């Protein structure tokens, strides 16, 4: 069995090298590959990634011709994965790659086809998470559970480990941050049970480069609704 870690990045020059090295340092229980997807960065991120994807490292780099968004970058990565399990690693430092083994273990053991990380299983209010983000997470979670008869605590979390054949069969159309909600909607419409495991989380602010905003909240709501009805 093999794991494919997709790392989409747009203007993350401050953190991308550390993130890649952190993923490489994880003691994965299976063979793995890392796919770096640069989303037409203009701050030097692409050059850092070019320096990382050298012979001897399990890294492959793909570059979007124009800035397309996180969802489109993930879809680009899915076209090239060679693993049996896929997980997306954000290029900031909010999520800790050391949590990945606990996310993929249920898939490896055949206990689940999809496993989500949850920032809310350890703490009701993750440390340093801004109130607007906390409220948006809560509202989207309530909506997803109601619309899709799910029992999730953190539908918005970026860590989602899914069997490759399953996620490829979902015919994803997402472009930006609605990736999380489209995947959830399509998995639940197929009756796939989604397991959750607790993960660590270090919030970052807009000042630190956080890109998700109010517009993305409404796109997420629309995504949950459009695939339900």
Give a written overview of the molecule.
By secondary structure, the chain is α/β, with parallel strands linked by helices. It is built from 8 helices and 7 strands. The chain has helices spanning 16-24, 45-52, 70-78, 100-108, 131-148, 164-168, 179-189, 214-226, and strands spanning 2-9, 31-38, 59-63, 85-88, 114-118, 160-163, 194-198. A 7-stranded mixed β-sheet has the order 3-2-1-4-6-5-7, sandwiched between helices. Strand 1, helix 1 and strand 2 (31-38) form a beta-alpha-beta unit. It starts with a strand and ends with a helix. The mean pLDDT is 93.
Topology, number of strands: 7
Order of helices and strands: EHEHEHEHEHEHHEH
Helix content: 25-40%
Q: Residue-averaged pLDDT, rounded?
A: 93
The CATH topology: Spore Coat Polysaccharide Biosynthesis Protein SpsA, Chain A
Main sheet overview = 7 strands, mixed
In CATH terms, the superfamily is Spore Coat Polysaccharide Biosynthesis Protein SpsA, Chain A
Assigned CATH class: Alpha Beta
CATH architecture: Alpha-Beta Complex
> Strand content of the residues, in percent?
15-25%
- What is the total number of structural domains? 1
Low-confidence segments, ≥5 residues, pLDDT <50?
A: none
Radius of gyration equals: 16 Å
Shape: globular
- Identify the strand order in the major beta sheet: 3-2-1-4-6-5-7
Category from helices, strands and their pairing = alpha/beta
Distance between the termini: 36 Å
* Helical run tally: 8
